[in-house]
Automatic annotation (TrEMBL):
Originating species: Trametes cubensis
Role, per record: Decapping enzyme for NAD-capped RNAs: specifically hydrolyzes the nicotinamide adenine dinucleotide (NAD) cap from a subset of RNAs by removing the entire NAD moiety from the 5'-end of an NAD-capped RNA.
Start-end of Low complexity biased regions: 44-56, 449-462
Molecular-function annotations in GO: metal ion binding; mRNA 5'-diphosphatase activity; nuclease activity; nucleotide binding; RNA binding
Taxonomic lineage from the root: Eukaryota, Fungi, Dikarya, Basidiomycota, Agaricomycotina
Name of the featured protein: Decapping nuclease
Region named Disordered: 1-56, 420-462
Pfam (any one): RAI1
Signal peptide boundaries: none
Length: 462
């Protein structure tokens, strides 16, 4: 005889058996909806017209880590061979001079490879000077690694009115890596500039040649060229600086090209000079347009610790009329209180919100165990649309293959870098002996957060 408990269990019917399947189907639809939602996110820009004050976000004064040069053959070397010194340009310089001899580097995808080699070198130096594993600890504390131009586009996005920007993002062991995404169509567009726009682009490079010399304070005297001409323009050649800084709670490593230094270079950023050109100001409309351009001038220099910007004003035909020097930290005061003025604190506050939101999205996705792929190998597309906001979407396999471009990469990170970094335990801990013996050029492991960051850098006053 069955027990009373057993006798209460009724027999299943065919309709009963179908119910769990229906419930599973509903659950699957819900999971698919949740999955789609987890793969696409949006973020709105802050208002730039509000009269309310914006909370101040601290920005640590940038500190130089190292510099490197690209040679005419586009070879990266850790020297200052491409370093140039500022000199005053000759009055009335012709900015079209040398245009026919311009060696223009072909447009290509803006990879992080050079910056990652620099990061690796910083880690190796830390290991050699402080002890094995010190470089790992340093990297573990870094929230973002990217180029200066990318951070400029992010921070100024609330004020951008024209240009759409696409980025690729990867989150590997607690560090966010960002590169600009340029489609083949966009690369072709940048390569095939209309003649007028191409000449105007050259004016900026020519101004750099007129303003720089291979020796401090001495204008170049090259045979067959006017006095002061620094040499024919070759955009393969660059001198770059890598700095560390901090935006709010985010420690950043940023790399960018530096045009020249004033008089000397001792490893610090305090003698860096940024060179810009702009149309001569003829009326109030020109002045308003120039003040709007000052936002990007300011942010580009501020991020890299460049203390001064020399602007060459020119005629439409490319004749230099005057030059004016701006102290970077004083630029916001020039526009403050004017109609339509920009506010750097809106940019910095937005930048902190953007990084927090993006890291939250990528972290949550990495913790989602429903996907079979490796979380750190995922690539996200971040689109900054003027006046609309930001969208963040997870790329599918075809999208990732497009980003890799048939090269030896995982996403957009070089394989040599990714294999080492992604192979580390993200939890704090001492490095393995084998990790400390990694030969140069094979990558860099992440590290534990540093609790002894020297408080030696004051925030910049804005």
């Amino acid at each position: 005889m069955a027990s009373p408990k057993t006798s209460k269990r009724r027999m299943s019917s065919p309709s009963d058996e179908a119910r769990p399947a229906k419930r599973l189907e509903v659950d699957a639809d819900a999971q698919n909806d949740a999955s789609r939602q987890s793969r696409h996110h949006t973020l709105s820009y802050p208002s730039v017209n509000s009269s309310q004050s914006v909370p101040s976000v601290p920005f640590q004064q940038p500190t130089g880590l190292l510099t490197f040069s690209y040679t005419p053959q586009r070879v990266l070397e850790f020297t200052d061979s491409a370093l140039r010194y500022y000199i005053d340009p000759p009055p009335g310089a012709d900015l079209r001079y040398g245009y026919e001899r311009w060696i223009k580097r072909p447009e290509e995808r803006t990879r992080l490879d050079g910056l990652l080699r620099a990061v690796e070198r910083v880690m190796q130096k830390a290991d050699a000077s402080v002890g094995p594993g010190s470089g790992e600890k340093w990297l573990k504390d870094i929230a973002v690694v990217t180029w200066r131009g990318i951070m400029t586009k992010i921070l100024t996005a609330p004020y951008e009115e024209r240009d759409r920007c696409e980025l690729n993002a990867m989150y590997v062991n607690g560090t966010l890596y960002l590169e600009e995404h340029l489609s083949d169509a966009r690369l072709k567009e940048k390569e095939d500039l209309p003649p007028k726009q191409r000449v105007q682009t050259y004016y900026g490079y020519s101004f750099e040649s007129w303003c720089t010399s291979s020796r401090p304070g001495v204008p170049e005297r090259l045979e067959g060229h006017p006095v002061g001409w620094g040499g024919d323009v070759d955009t393969n050649v660059q001198w770059c600086s890598v700095i560390k800084t901090k935006l709010g709670d985010n420690r950043l490593v940023i790399g960018g090209e530096v045009d020249c230094v004033r008089e000397r270079f001792s490893g610090r950023t305090d003698t860096f000079v940024e060179l810009k050109t702009s149309m001569s100001i003829r009326n109030a409309g020109d002045e308003a347009r120039f003040e709007k351009k000052l936002l990007k001038f300011y942010m580009q220099s501020f991020l890299l610790g460049v203390p001064e910007i020399v602007v060459g004003f020119r005629t439409p035909a490319g004749r230099l009329t005057t030059t004016q020097t701006f102290k970077t930290v004083q630029i916001p005061r020039l526009v403050r209180g004017k109609p339509g003025a920009w506010d750097p604190q809106i940019c910095f506050n937005w930048g902190q919100q953007f990084l927090f939101k993006l890291k939250s999205i990528l972290t949550a996705a990495a913790e989602d165990s429903s996907s079979a792929d490796e979380p750190s190998a995922r690539v996200w597309r971040v689109t900054l649309s003027p006046r609309e906001g930001v969208s963040v979407s997870l790329l599918d396999e075809d999208g990732v293959r497009d980003v890799e471009g048939g090269e030896g990469r995982v996403g957009f990170l070089p394989r040599w870098y990714y294999d080492k970094v992604a192979g580390q335990d993200p939890d704090p801990g001492p490095p393995l002996a084998a990790e400390a013996e990694v030969p140069p050029g094979t990558g860099m492991p992440p590290t534990t957060p540093s609790s002894h960051q020297p408080p030696s850098h004051q925030g910049w006053n804005i």
